[in-house]
Amino acid sequence: MSAPQSDSTALIPLAAAPRMCAVGGGSSVNRSSVVGLVGGHPGVAYPLAKAAIIGLTKTTAAHRGHEGIRVNAPAPGYVYTPVVHPQGFDDAAREQRRLTAPLATEGTGWDADDAVLFLAGPRSAGSPGLSFPPTPGSPRHSAPATPRQ
User: Fold this and answer.
1) Where is this region: Disordered (predicted)?
2) Which domain range does residue 111 map to?
């Protein structure tokens, strides 16, 4: 996990805990990725960082739950965004990736953001320590990593 990512993921719930406790609890939502759950990424650092976020989320949820603080981390699957295209993700690669998803579709940024809104809101009050792929483009299992070119 990169230092800025691990520091902010670990420190934000710690910094917010006193204020959350003062009002009877609250919610902290970290961001992970489906590759932290199932692998299948050509690099090693990215899935390792995302798996570490999931572990930290579950541990923090267990340690802070008695204070009314829940911590969760949605792990979106395949989401096409404008950031992906310049990285060499062409239409053929998108189509191949889409076909590996259970619903044969890509997720959108809206799918991922809706999960954050749910986990931050009152409807998830009984759900601490969750990490799940909220996008229809999530793979069923670890896909073979495509080597970097």
Assistant:
1) 121-149
2) 3-124
